[in-house]
Automatic annotation (TrEMBL), chain A:
UniProt keyword ATP-binding present: yes
Organism in which the protein naturally occurs: Micromonospora taraxaci
GO CC field: plasma membrane
Record SMART domains: AAA
Protein name as annotated: Branched-chain amino acid transport system ATP-binding protein
TrEMBL record, chain B:
Any one GO cellular component localisation term in the record: plasma membrane
Biological processes annotated in GO: amino acid transport
GO molecular function: transmembrane transporter activity
Name of the protein in question: Branched-chain amino acid transport system permease protein
Domain of life per record: Bacteria
Protein family per UniProt: Belongs to the binding-protein-dependent transport system permease family. LivHM subfamily.
Pfam family, one: BPD_transp_2
Transmembrane segments: 6-27, 34-53, 65-89, 101-121, 146-165, 194-217, 229-256, 263-284
Keywords recorded for this protein, A-Z: Amino-acid transport, Cell membrane, Membrane, Transmembrane, Transmembrane helix, Transport
Membrane disposition: Multi-pass membrane protein
Cell compartment(s), UniProt: Cell membrane
Statement: the UniProt record of this protein carries the keyword Kinase: no
Keyword Cell membrane: yes
TrEMBL record, chain C:
UniProt keyword Transmembrane helix, yes or no: no
Keywords linked to the UniProt accession: Amino-acid transport, ATP-binding, Nucleotide-binding, Transport
A UniProt-annotated Pfam family: ABC_tran
Keyword set includes Transport: yes
Protein family per UniProt: Belongs to the ABC transporter superfamily.
InterPro entries referenced in this protein's UniProt entry, alphabetically: AAA+_ATPase, ABC_transporter-like_ATP-bd, ABC_transporter-like_CS, BCAA_Transport_ATP-bd_LivF, P-loop_NTPase
Protein name: Amino acid/amide ABC transporter ATP-binding protein 2 (HAAT family)
Organism encoding this protein: Micromonospora taraxaci
GO molecular function terms noted in the UniProt entry: ATP binding; ATP hydrolysis activity; branched-chain amino acid transmembrane transporter activity
ABC transporter domain: residues covered: 5-234
GO biological process per UniProt: L-amino acid transport
CDD domains listed in its UniProt record: ABC_TM1139_LivF_branched
Lineage per the UniProt record: Bacteria, Bacillati, Actinomycetota, Actinomycetes, Micromonosporales
Superkingdom of this protein's organism: Bacteria
Automatic annotation (TrEMBL), chain E:
Spans through the membrane: 28-51, 63-80, 92-111, 117-136, 141-159, 179-207, 241-261, 331-353
Name under which the protein is recorded: Branched-chain amino acid transport system permease protein
One GO molecular-function entry: branched-chain amino acid transmembrane transporter activity
Keyword Nucleotidyltransferase among record annotations: no
Location, primary (coarse class): membrane
Keyword Ubl conjugation attributed: no
Pfam families with a match to the protein in the record: BPD_transp_2
Subcellular location: Cell membrane
Protein keywords: Cell membrane, Membrane, Transmembrane, Transmembrane helix
Source taxon at top rank: Bacteria
GO cellular component terms given for this protein: plasma membrane
Membrane topology listed for this record: Multi-pass membrane protein
Length: 247, 296, 241, 373, 369
């Protein structure tokens, strides 16, 4: 459903993302790995529209979305999380999620209705919070959350938007070992239903191996390989450039 | 031809005055991240300091070395006030941008009122050497010496600030401090000193602008600083916040546009053009001409 | 052996929240002491309190000593100049400055910065000297943040989750670096990656809900399945890989 | 109480006469205001022969600072009127006078405008008078500098805005009407660099340059006109401002022909002696305050508490003021008064003005306008 | 680099339901305050030193009316600044458009008041929408400066007195002959007071409703992270434009009332200082809080008006010259008050209530464990 064709982003002479061809099938979970600075986050930025590609096309369900601003792409069903948590720091955790739910329900321009009175939004938001295990932090200001909690809130924001294609940028970074299985379960549950596709960057290999159907490897902006986990892990270049010796 | 040269040179004189005001503003604004509405006060202190010294300080006077001494006193006074303001008022408020606005607005109101309470609302004649009242014939144009003095001073100030930013570590410390003060301290640097220094330099530049502005206008009055400030702000923004070179370019553009449009167009059009220029530059290049923050 | 750092009865309140409640532990003069605990227990808060970086709204009580010297009430920059290196959790590189400028800023007066050591560890930093740090990838920023403290000689390093967001290969490299660093300088490390902990840590301090739940030998902790389960909430299976 | 209560002016014969003075004590025009109030107090002494009373009734002054802001002046006026004040005087700034005048008419109280020079106060309404001169009288005085204007070329150099407009219009009417060709060079009030304008003036080669410029940039403007040789090449006329400003003309001061509303020594009247005795050196706006006090006393004497009677008593009244013979023209309440030509002499900070000529109130009379309200 | 951060984090109260002992009464407190303010003119209490005359005297009512208007203006400005994080330096333009628009239509064109008011508010809103559409292409300090530039053009146009419409620096007195009799004359000041109160109520109500609405939630999000809003699927530009237009419309409505109260327009109100004072009012009160901006606006205007009297009072005159000279400068006192306010009431007046509550709580004896 999501496809990139020769997607390239150059700054000056340097290609940060270099002619990437990717296809994401409905219901598929595609892991993205690669050394630091390979261009994974940049690829996400191109797909979600925070950066404009210098060459190449991006299509969603066959429609070319390369020229749309971020919010239009989001409305078409693209959702993402950020590598560095970006939540609404001066709003409460619950308000954060409600805002996301509201955005998903069509971005009401109502000026006169009471937002708090919308039970459906509230219920959907609470459900999302429950799912990531943040329900007890609902009234805390998002800005004062500890790092790991912010990661969870990021995912709750994403869930609230019920996107069809989800881009997760290192969701496990900084999450305490105890909570990783829980979060993995949450992410796993996302894909099971309704043909939702996921693109996830992650450096925790065990998580990637547990979740991904296929793994794409990026290196110096280019797609080095895109194949089943077994094949990718066996690839000597990947071993050498990315995994190194295990601890 | 004579007219064009006259307009160009007087325009540059005006530009030099704008630059002197804007350079300090730009440093404080771009480097210390303080939107300093009290900059006009430093200007006023510099002007009144010079004026007072010429009349009261032994050895100082309106002429020759005495005048240099008077200006030096004015600049010192402005610098001192700037340092005090930073130490007492701004220091507790870093990273609280909005409260800084409140304090600097309050300071500009109170400061100007204080000058007025002390020396009255009326303009006072400004002590200055006689040659600054004369003109120099350049290619058939009678160019006022006061304007030429401003141009020379502006070039010197530009050079000095650039040297400071390039050759000392302070430029770096300040730029980093704007982004994240805490982390600069966590690298073992006393960031507060650097910020005080920026204020001192900004204050000195403003005070010099005040003193030379006094020469140029021939008078000193409490509100003078604030009325120059709006154009200085425009120059800073067009030039790109924190870029001293950008401010210099912008000052030249603003000065010349004002001068030529006022002559060839109808009156008042010059101001509107400058304001229009600001809007256009920002819409096309929100980061200003120089476009990079805090570069030399 | 005299501990290099001793924290006694440390309490931190931030805007009414009691985040740390009477935390006491010591850091051994050699090797890595690791600070463990779930998200939000106050690990970062502890490190920042040691450095005097608690937000103005906060209130710190207790004693923190390095040798005979009391650290509380000293300004941060003086502590750092006295040999306390800090690698913050969110990297906090100066996004507007270039990599080279970031490093130059970290030089301390009166010492000769060990650039060769840093560039040998992270050649990337040498190559990208002129790039704005803000446009570095997450991992590259992490390298810069670590490289920055290694420029100088320190008496103690406070390192907050240095491997977060790093590729497995780099994680291994960073672990090696820290291992080598720890040979000469003691390190107080906050880390979630238990594999890294296993490799580096000599002593461990486990926080839970703002209090110290366990201190002792790190390997002992990781070997005792029941202990890890109850303190860190993970089974030994997870610890292993 | 009721929200529409206002105190009524005590009708009994011993109650004091309440007079409200709303003028600038602070702000940019504070020094004008200071002269005004000094003049007023001296005038009150003079007109009541030192008793401060009209008949048995004491004149009770309430001074309010408007800081040059019309909104504050309006608030102050409403407050005074609400407390039963029937006479309000003051208004240092034109903007203030223009906005207080309608308040006076709406509430039927007497308003005597002060130094505000705008022509628009004249004929504003039945309840509004003025105690100072108006721009038109300045221009008529300027005309006296060029003898026969027919065929002469006159340039007006003025600020953008209403003040400049009024001056330009007045010059066109007065001097242009007498046969001169009048053109104008206008500059923004905020201008700090005057070379383009000086060049334009010089190119025009006028026989007479009339300059209407107020504000702190005036010295820079004069210096530029001097440097570009304008002052040397033609007769330049402008209004003589307060004494404090004289040194700021610098070398240009002695090259300019001044029209003057008043300066110390311009007249030698009883009133001027009395004024000088209290203030030592008379300045530009002392006479306005003095005249205002004389008018207040007259109104209180003749009108009691009846404002309409006060108006009648003032309309057409002639009196001996500081400047000489003053007449309130009944039709539009213009204050006909002598005006002066002056020269400055001296250098440094010591300048003196000497009168060249004085014009009578009739000679400088503005054309009558219809009463607007 | 962010030159202008979002104002200090304040959760809009509208979005977080209050708890506590008072939470049942709280919703009615504003209503009580409104009733008290509405019947205030029937009281003859004198507050010596605070007001010149009794509360129901025209002078007092006039000052109160002006204070209320600025309370409303500040609340409207806060919709931009405190709640959306947009720092506009040109908000005075829309207020001035209201003042001059009404004045010109009534005085020069002779329209009846209601028509003039309607036209003006519509025009002011459209003006805000148009200029906002352009200015919002920039963000941060650039946005502030573009709005400042627009306002500056407005100020120049007013000062130049194009077509003799504005009266230039002398201003334009309002022609009251066609106005309803109830709005003219000192005895009717009370009606103007009620009008101002109505305006304030309207603005507070609108701002409150909007902040608590779904759109308000988006505005609060915009203040924190605009990029994030985009990625959630909302167009930041549209929402900011809505806020800008609404605030502009409210400001021009304020202008309509103000011109009636003051009885004319003067160029003071087009100056950039006025925008700056709006900012000061909001910060003084507490940005993003429900009552802070209102209190800030009222306090600012009260001081601005009353300090002139303070400066000339006997108490000040009797002080030695070093003190009495500066103190007789109203702006000196005003400026000093701002500076002190920052250090003594951080977070603005609105931050005072929780601090007092905290204080009383900590003073109460705690049960021993
Ligand atoms: N604006 C920019 N200007 C210059 N270089 C840039 C810019 N943005 C990104 N880069 C460079 O592009 C490369 C790819 O960065 P990106 O953030 O996409 O990496 P990544 O794969 O997400 O790495 P990580 O796993 O460390 O997060 C990096 O080398 C980075 O320095
Ligand atoms: N400035 C602050 N204001 C209010 N609460 C804060 C503040 N800083 C931290 N906290 C709270 O203190 C608690 C501890 O935070 P801290 O960052 O120290 O946790 P941590 O152990 O480092 O967690 P993580 O593993 O997620 O990094 C958290 O609940 C957090 O919400
Ligand atoms: Mg990345
Ligand atoms: Mg942490």
């Amino acid at each position: 459903m999501l496809a990139t064709r020769g997607l390239t982003w150059r700054i000056g002479e340097v290609a940060i993302v270099d002619s990437v061809y990717l296809d994401l099938e409905p219901g598929e979970f595609l892991g993205v790995i690669g050394p630091n600075g390979a261009g994974k986050t940049s690829l996400f930025n191109l797909i979600t529209g925070l950066r404009r590609a210098t060459e190449g096309r991006i299509t969603l369900d066959g429609q070319d979305i390369g020229a749309l601003p971020p919010h239009r792409r989001a409305r078409l069903g693209l959702g993402r999380t950020f590598q560095a948590s970006s939540v609404f720091g001066s709003l409460s955790v619950r308000e954060n999620v409600r805002l996301a739910v509201q955005a998903h329900r069509g971005g009401s321009m109502a000026l006169w209705r009471r937002a708090a009175a919308d039970r459906e939004v509230a219920a959907a938001a609470d459900a999302a919070l429950d799912r990531v295990g943040l329900a007890h932090r609902g009234t805390a200001l998002a800005g004062t959350l500890a790092h790991g909690e912010k990661r969870k809130l990021e995912i709750a924001l994403l869930l609230a938007g019920e996107p069809r294609v989800m881009l997760l940028d290192e969701p496990m970074a900084g999450v305490s070992a105890e909570d990783i299985p829980e979060l993995v379960a949450v992410i796993k549950s996302l894909t099971g239903d309704s043909g939702r596709a996921v693109l996830m960057v992650e450096h925790h290999m065990d998580v990637i191996l547990e979740l991904a159907d296929r793994i794409a490897v990026m290196h110096h902006g280019a797609l080095l390989a895109c194949d089943t986990p077994e094949t990718v892990m066996a690839n000597p270049t990947v071993q050498e450039a990315y995994l190194g010796e295990s601890l | 031809m004579g007219t064009v040269i006259l307009l160009a040179l007087t325009g540059l004189g005006l530009a030099a005055l704008y630059f002197l005001v804007a350079s300090g503003l730009s440093l404080v604004f771009g480097l210390a991240d303080v939107l300093n509405f009290a900059h006009g006060l430093f200007l006023g202190v510099g002007a009144y300091g010079t004026w007072w010294a010429a009349g009261n300080l032994p050895g100082a006077g309106p002429d020759g070395f005495g005048f240099v001494l008077a200006v030096a006193f004015g600049v010192a006074a402005g610098t001192l006030v700037a340092i005090l303001v930073e130490l007492v008022l701004i220091r507790p408020l870093y990273s609280r941008t909005i409260e800084q606005v409140l304090v600097t607005v309050g300071l500009s109101l109170a400061g100007v009122a204080l000058l007025q309470a002390t020396w009255g609302a009326d303009a006072r004649p400004f002590p200055r050497p006689d040659w600054t009242r004369q003109v120099t014939g350049i290619l058939g144009a009678q160019v006022p010496n006061g304007g030429l003095l401003l141009i020379i001073a502006a070039v010197l100030v530009l050079g000095a600030i650039l040297a400071f930013l390039r050759w000392t570590r302070y430029g770096l410390v300040i730029r980093a401090g704007v982004e994240n003060r805490e982390m600069v301290t966590a690298l073992g640097i006393d960031v507060r000193k650097a910020f005080t220094l920026v204020f001192a330099i900004g204050g000195a530049a403003a005070a010099l602008a005040g003193a030379l502005g006094g020469v140029y206008f021939g008078t000193v009055s409490p509100g003078q600083g604030s009325s120059l400030l709006i154009f200085a702000f425009i120059v800073v923004v067009i030039g790109g916040m924190g870029s001293v070179v950008g401010s210099a370019y912008a000052a030249v553009v603003v000065g010349l546009v004002q001068q030529f449009v006022n002559y060839y167009g109808t009156s008042g059009l010059g101001d509107i053009c400058v304001v229009g220029l600001l809007a256009v530059v920002l819409l096309l290049r929100p980061q200003g001409i120089a476009g990079k923050v805090a570069t030399a | 052996m005299e501990p290099v750092l001793s924290v006694e009865d440390l309490s931190v309140r931030i805007s009414g929240l009691h985040i740390l409640q009477g935390v006491s532990f010591t850091v051994a003069p050699t090797g890595v002491t690791v600070l463990l605990g779930r998200n939000g227990v106050g690990k970062t808060t502890t490190l920042r309190a040691i450095l005097g970086l608690t937000p103005p709204a906060g209130e710190v009580r207790g004693t923190i000593r390095m040798g005979a010297q009391s650290l509380l009430s000293q300004p941060t920059h003086r502590l750092v100049r006295g040999g306390l290196g800090y690698v913050p959790e969110d990297r906090d590189v100066f996004a507007g400055l270039t990599v080279a400028e970031n490093l130059r800023l970290a030089e301390r007066r009166g010492t000769s910065p060990a650039y060769d050591k840093v560039f040998a560890l992270f050649p990337e930093l040498d190559r990208r000297g002129r790039q704005r740090a803000g446009s570095l990838s997450g991992g590259q920023q992490q390298m810069l943040a670590i490289g920055r403290v290694l420029l100088n000689d320190n008496r103690l390093l406070l390192v907050d989750e240095p491997t977060k967001g790093l590729a497995p290969k780099v994680v291994t490299e960073v672990a090696e670096v820290l291992e080598r660093v720890a040979e000469s300088v003691p390190v107080l490390l906050v880390e979630q990656n238990l594999a890294v902990v296993r490799r580096l840590a000599r002593d461990a301090v486990v926080l839970a809900a703002g209090k110290v739940a366990w201190t002792g030998d790190a390997h002992e902790l990781l070997l005792e399945t029941a202990l890890t389960k109850s303190l860190l909430g993970v089974g030994s299976a997870e610890v292993k890989h | 109480g009721s929200p529409q209560d206002t105190a009524t002016g005590g009708g009994d014969s011993a109650a004091p006469v309440k007079v409200g003075l709303v003028y600038s004590q602070s702000g940019a025009l504070a020094s004008y205001g200071k002269q005004y109030i000094e003049g007023f107090k001296a005038g009150l002494d003079f007109a009541t022969k030192g008793t401060g009373k009209v008949g048995d009734r004491k004149i009770e002054l309430t001074e309010v600072d408007d800081a040059g802001d019309p909104a504050k002046a309006v608030s102050a006026a409403k407050d005074l009127i609400g407390k039963g004040t029937k006479i309000i005087a003051g208004s240092t700034a034109s903007g203030v006078a223009l906005q207080v005048a309608p308040i006076a008419a709406q509430n039927k109280v007497l308003f005597i405008s002060g130094p505000a020079a705008t022509d628009a106060v004249t004929g504003a309404n039945k309840y509004t008078f003025r105690s100072g001169r108006q721009s038109y009288q300045d221009v008529v005085t300027a005309k006296s500098f060029i003898g026969d204007p027919a065929g002469k070329k006159v340039v007006v150099f003025a600020q953008d805005g209403a003040f400049g407009d009024a001056n330009e219009a007045a010059v066109k009417a007065v001097i242009g009407g007498a046969g001169a060709t009048v053109s104008s060079v206008r500059a923004p009030a905020s201008a700090t660099e005057f070379t383009p304008f000086a060049s334009q003036i010089k190119t025009a080669k006028p026989d007479l340059l009339f300059v209407a410029w107020a504000g702190t940039t005036a010295p820079a403007m004069w210096q530029t006109l001097d440097q570009q040789g304008v002052l040397a090449s033609t007769t330049v006329v402008t209004g003589l401002d307060i004494r404090a400003s004289w040194p700021t003309f610098g070398a240009a001061g002695t090259k300019i022909s001044f029209l003057s509303h008043y300066f110390d020594g311009a007249s030698d009247t009883e009133a001027s002696k009395a004024l000088k005795a209290t203030v030592n050196t008379i300045d530009l706006f002392h006479p306005d305050g003095f005249a205002a006090a004389q008018m207040v006393v007259r109104a209180a004497q003749e009108g009691g508490d009846d404002v309409d009677k006060m108006v009648t008593a003032l309309e057409g009244w002639s009196f001996d003021g500081v400047k000489g013979k003053m007449t309130i023209r009944a039709a539009d309440h213009a204050l006909l008064q002598p005006m002066f030509q002056a020269k400055l002499a001296g250098s440094g900070t010591a300048f003196t003005a000497t009168a060249q000529k004085s014009l009578t109130g009739d000679e400088t009379a503005p054309p009558a306008v219809a009463m607007k309200g | 680099m962010t030159v202008i951060d979002a104002p200090p984090a304040q959760v809009p109260d509208e979005l977080t339901p209050q708890r506590g002992r008072w939470h049942r009464v709280r919703p009615f407190l504003p209503l009580v305050a409104l009733v008290v303010l509405a019947i205030l003119p029937y009281s003859t209490i004198s507050l010596p030193g605070i007001f010149e005359g009794p509360v129901n005297s025209p002078g007092t009512l006039q000052i109160l009316a002006i204070c209320l208007i600025f309370g409303g203006l500040a609340a409207g400005y806060d919709l931009l600044f405190g709640r959306t994080g947009m720092l506009s330096f040109g908000h005075a333009l829309y207020f001035a458009a209201g003042v001059y628009g009404t004045d010109i239509l009534v005085t020069r064109a002779g329209l009846p008041l209601w028509q003039a008011a309607l036209l003006t508010v519509t025009g002011g809103t459209i003006l805000a929408a148009l200029l906002g559409a352009v200015a919002l292409r920039t963000v941060g300090i650039a946005f502030a400066m573009v709005t400042l530039a627009f306002a500056q053009v407005g100020a120049i146009l007013v000062a130049r007195d194009f077509g003799g419409l504005t009266g230039g620096e002398e201003g334009l007195p309002l022609d009251v002959s066609g106005l309803p009799a109830g709005l003219v004359g000192v005895t009717n000041t009370v009606n103007l007071y009620w009008l101002a109160l109505a305006y304030l109520t309207l603005v507070v109500f609108v701002v409150h409703r909007v902040s608590g609405s779904p759109t308000g939630r988006v505005l609060a999000g915009l203040r924190d992270d605009e990029r994030r809003i985009g990625v959630l699927g909302l167009d930041p530009y549209r929402y900011k434009l809505v806020a800008f237009t609404l605030a502009g419309g409210l400001a021009s409505a304020g202008g309509v009332v103000y011109v009636l109260i003051v009885g004319g327009a003067s160029p003071h109100i087009t100056s950039s200082e006025l925008t700056l004072s709006l900012l000061v009012m909001v910060v003084l009160g507490g940005p993003g809080t429900r009552w802070g901006p209102v209190l800030g606006g009222v306090l600012y205007m009260y001081l601005d008006h009353r300090l002139t009297a303070f400066g000339t009072s006997d108490a000040v005159d009797s002080l030695p010259a070093v003190l009495s000279h500066p103190l007789s400068q109203p702006l000196f006192v005003l400026g000093t008050v701002f500076i002190l306010a920052v250090y003594f009431f951080p977070g603005g007046l609105a931050g005072l209530a929780p601090r007092v509550a905290h204080l009383t709580r900590s003073l109460r004896p705690r049960p021993r464990p």
